[in-house]
Write the structure tokens for this entry.
Amino acid sequence: MDEERYREAEATFWAGYGIEPRERRVRLATTGTEVRVQVVGEGPPILFLHGGPNAGTTWAPIVGAFEGFTRFIVDRPGTGLSEPWPAIVERQDLERFADRFVADVLDGLGVERAHVVASSFGGYLALRSAAAAPERIVRMVQMACPAFAPGMRTPPFMRLMSMGWFRRFTGLFPPNGKVGDMILRQIGHGASLDAGRIPQAFKDWYLDLQRYTDTMENDGNTIGSAVSIRGFDPALTLPDELIAAVTTPTLFLWGEDDAFGGRDVAERLAELMPNAPLEMFPGSGHLPWIDFPEDIGPRAAAFLAGAEAADGGPRAS
């Protein structure tokens, strides 16, 4: 970990969007883990939950679209500048952490209710939290396939990351742009790479995340507890009845080329939920906001702003 150099790289990336976040530290009651939360703006709260291996600053390309909201951008445990959470020994450990994750973060921030914007593993945390504590989430935007959704597939690089020997071997070599582009292609961003839609600044920040933080090692350990060379543990699949119990109004913004699950997975998931419109984005992958930030950000913000007009929105305590 080289926190100073990572902070410099992160500040450069944010500055490209004209944003300088404030920072808070939050202790999660369930696990005792301290997480870093970056804060942007003022207004009704939104909690941003990223996937893996990644960190909160991945949301930088669209954070500016949510003007008029307080944006709480979380580094998940073990990523960015957050502490790792305890070892996940059994499936029930992960499920317990997930059920309490949103409530724990909001409690630490002193916020009663919030909107949630989530992706991938963050999407899994948000769905389980919404089922367990629906009173804490006002509206939710899910960007692409949540982890462990029914029918989810596991890209090859993530299967390899589940293997300890592979993580140790790759740890001997410095991160490089070619590997980063390979990962982006594997998760469905080939069209954007070929068209030059993914900014070099995003790629530079992601390489610095790997160089200067323990994100890859920590998330590799988390992935290793849930995924094998054959794919993810089927026992972790979100049950249909849990998904159907999520009554939080939820907008799915889903890339057609998402390697974790395409239109078939998206439509089945949205149909299981009682209030979940779905929009598909051709030529987009697992992180749709880096393909089309000018479309994705305003669409997500408008969906959340609709709740503000209807009921005055969530309030901080």
About this structure: The first helix runs from residue 3 to 15.
